[in-house]
UniProtKB/TrEMBL annotation:
Species of origin: Sphingomonas echinoides
Keywords from the UniProt entry: Signal
Protein name in UniProt: Thioredoxin domain-containing protein
Lineage: Bacteria, Pseudomonadati, Pseudomonadota, Alphaproteobacteria, Sphingomonadales
Presence of the UniProt keyword Signal in the record: yes
Residue ranges occupied by any Thioredoxin-like fold domain in the UniProt entry: 48-235
Amino acid sequence: MNMRLVVAAMAIVVGAASAAQAVPAKKAVAHRAPAKVAWASMIVATPEGGVRIGNPNAKVKLIEFGSRTCPHCARFDAEGLPALRTGYIASGQVSYEFRDFPIHGALDLGPILLGHCVPTRAFFPLLNAMMANQEKLVGRPDQVPADKQQQLQGAKPTEIAAYLAKFYGYTDLVVQKGMPLAKATACLADTKAVDLVAQRAGAANKAYAVNSTPTFLINGVAQANTFTWAALEPLVRAAVTK
């Protein structure tokens, strides 16, 4: 073979190899999955006076009208809310809103006023604490003395709320949770807040005929004879898969 041809061929090969090395390799583009939204951490106050947790555009909107002194509500708070948070709410399929309803009248008023006396992010932790301690608080064996009951007959709603909240330990509970006593006292004396509680209870009664707690709404429809998570969960599941 002609040596000049061999040398020329070698030069072409070497040149081609050098050119190949000179061209930078294309980097693979990583396609990241969309960030998962932490729906269970999304908590907002609603215009109706409740507090909602979860996707505001969820397919299923679950609302509970509950009482902080209602045993059925305390049971749902212990059994249903954790299951909702980790399942339906976390997936973005369901939002859950709690609206206070004073089914026990004056007894509920103090806990409601104190329960709304915290930043929105602290609403559910305080609600959970009140529910978890409910039996110890309102289930105590001693009752309001007869003479004090008589005095409270003609008292203002704020005075009754303050006395009962103190007597049953709700004031002490919120102070233990970090609320200054002066703030708790001021919230219990807030006459405008008392009026709002009454107005919202009246609106719930008028719109949904709420007369027991808990009363659950699924997409605006009240669910009859549904008081436990065992009874509610199949209804929520059906609404999600509908």
